[in-house]
Amino acid sequence: MTAAESNGLWQSLYQGRTAFVRYWAYIGLMLGAVGLALFGGDGYTENGYIFQLVGQDGLMWLGTGALLAAGLAIGVSVLRPEIVNGHIPKMMVSWFDGGALMLVLMGLLTILEPSGAMVSYEDQTNLFAGHVIMTMNVLFLFSGICYIAYLFAPESFIGSMATATAWGGLYAGGSSLLLRWYESYLFMDGEIGHAPVSNIYEVFILLFCIVTIIYLQWEKRYEAKAMGAFVMGLVAAGVFFAIWLESVGQAEIKPLVPALQSYWMKIHVPLNFVGYGAFAVACGAGMAYLTRMWLEARGSKMVAVFPSLEALDQLAYKSVAVGFPAFTLATILGAAWAAEAWGGYWSWDPKETWALIVWLVYGAYLHVRISHGWHGKTLAWWTVIAFLVTVFCFLGVNMYLAGLHSYGRLS
Amino acid sequence: VIARHDAADFGGYHAAMSHLSDYLKPILLRLGSMSLAITLLTVLALASVIGTVLLQNQDQTDYLQQFGPIWYWVFRSLGLFDMYHTWWFMSLLGFLMLSLSVCLYRNIPRFLKEMRSSKVALSDSAMKHMKHVQHWDMKGQNAETVLEVAKNRLKEWGIRQETRGDIHYIRADKGSKHKWGYIFVHSAMLIILIGGWMSVQFGFRGNMSVPVGGKESEISFLKGTSTEYMKMPFEVRANDFSIDFYPNGMPKEFKSNLTIIDNGKEVLTSDIIVNEPLYYKGVRIYQASFGDGGSNIHMKLLKLDGSSDVENVQAKVYTTFKDEKTGVSLEMTDFRPHNVENMAEAGQAKDFQDLGASVDFVLRGPGLKPVKIRSFIEPFVLNDENRGSFMQVSFSGDTGDFKSMPLGLDLTNPKEWEMLQRFIAHLGDADLSNPQKANMQAFKAAMHDVFGDERPENFQAMAMRVLQAVQVIPRLPWPYIPVLDDYDQKYYTGLQLTTDPGMNVVWIGSALLVIGLCIMLYVSHRKLWLVVRQKDNQLNISFVGLSNRNPLNFKREFNEILIAINEDMQKLKQGETL
Asked: B500 and A344 in contact by Cβ < 8 A?
């Protein structure tokens, strides 16, 4: 099979009836999951649900939902063939595919999990997710190196290797988080199970994945591979920090303090990290912009590898445009949670205040860009410095300042 | 770039404010200006940083200690210890509101006008400035057909048509309502600030501590540097407070059972936990903290004057017991029913163990250094081996500085205490020229005094403990050893009570903010023009595009539409029907 043919086959997966039926099958699958939560077994329990999902009940409900929806979609597409074009958001199909693949990977990995007798809260060294996370670390590090090497050897296979390892790391990271979620139910009678977004180590893995997925979208759509050296470089630097965290015992699954026992945690934290992740990508684009400018001034030949200054400027803006509404919504939802748990939506707690500062910094970025038409070098610097402020908000505040968010602290 | 923008702006608001007196105009202009807004935001951000670095609402004495009298006075007069409620911080927010209002007042009419009226025709000079322009000529078609073909392709766009002389214009718009994004976002920020002001002005937020079994109707809160009190329209009685622990000693759940008493009548009884507050008469009641509510403490004072006397003492947490004879006082500061610690060595699998109940007190007396002591009720048992009672001692008075002090003896066993006393007494009588023999004899004599001819169980281990204790206990500077003996625990539950009339306003503003942002960032206003000019037997066609956002995607979209229209034209040429 030639490259063009395989490309065509790949594309046909995302077109016409194949994509249409698959899209509705996923929707049916999700409805099945909702149905299982509402009506299945003994009703929804936070502790039991994840096991229901991967068990026989889950297979029945999710399978039925998916099959029914797929059947309906096939029926409709036979009766009215023109409906398969343009009536589904094509992008969603690939996102669903990715999500499903991560779930399947996680399901397969549970097989490798040691028997119940070999794991306990006191001794978590036998849990398997650690190995998957290490795989992710290695892949991201390798990817970062490849992207940097790509700048010097754009014609070689290193570029495709960089992209492939970034995808690999993304799937390893995503499935390791899911696996960790599953693992948190394996001891203490499932009493301490919780979503893997409760401490700094877990959110770092989430952050890597979010940065990578946003970057890979830009790479796919706008051919901005040179930017990867900077974005994946940031991720690789983060990997070192995560490895250090693990070495000082921050990687253990610990029970949730009462303040965190809320469904809000599952919404507030990931959404916040969509914001942080997008800001990191913006920072990468900004750095790429500045580097290209510097290379141009020196008359270097490497400039040819980079996307145009205009494209880099746009990509930085696009990333902020993804991150800013997510960050805004996350902060608002955080306020809603605070109103529910602490009795006030805003307490001027250090984390809240720094979130406000980050919001103001990116708000000002958007302001000068949209209303004043600024762009170029100043804004490239802006994305870089604003990201430093962001890093202080999600890391520095936990390390240096006390406050209500102190459970995120390094101890 | 700024200069150009401002110049354009001035034109806009002169029109909007022509009825205002000339005197007010420059002030309003300044207030609504972008540079003031950015300055305000910057100052606000920098001021906020101070409040996160300087811990807010701490004890005044702590501040005084930390900064010394001069800086304390400076910081205090600037209100930096409760910074977010000072007049100057409030005025900053007030200025921001004013600036937002002026900005909205100035721009809304302009935006609305722009959205309503936009020209269909496109002048040649305007066309030259457009980034996306394509010209081509066509023969053998009439203009009407071309226009129909284009309109057919632009079905999903808002289309308007105009003919001026022999030039036909089609204008197609998408996302023309995107200016609502600006309006939403800026009004949302204003609404949120108004909501925040309402919360501060008409709401309250305070704490109350209710001992289990007790009632309370007053909340306390900090205002500036002083604590103020406020009466609630009801009373809260705490019926119960309980903590659930995880096996590793981390708290799992704090739960209070509360009864609301209104006008002497019990109206409502309910459990509250963290994240699930109670709501009554517009007031939300949250589980915020807990502590000792004055537990009854029973202590033994083991006299060190050689009399082997034991005195029994009753006290409550937060009270002070004073021994009149010696002048030594014990100020009870805290009580803990559980002390779960990891007993494993570093690097080994964790081993959590409950060391049992403890009481904290400060021991003071004439000629004694004040010292904070944590006394445990149980002896320390490691690997099933009784290592004797122990206490933690802190000379700084800070619980972080606690150092373990093993006493050797198991003080829960009165016989052991007696043994030690007898042993010390006999040692005094013994011939000290041969210490080993003297020890042996004294111990035997003490055994005989306490147990007669019987041998207690594990007496070997006990002998070890006594020999260890004799190294420690006689050296203690205190007249007695205070040991926790029994307790009747009582918690207080710490509640936070709030009303917040501004909260819903804030939520409305927040929703508007997110919607506005999405419109502003994701809806780009895209405009296409098709200009068809009839010239002799030929059509001059221009296809022009403009987008205010997302040029990368628009370039692609523009080209796709251009190719599609072109294809349709080709088909027409070949006589096909569409």
From this structure: yes
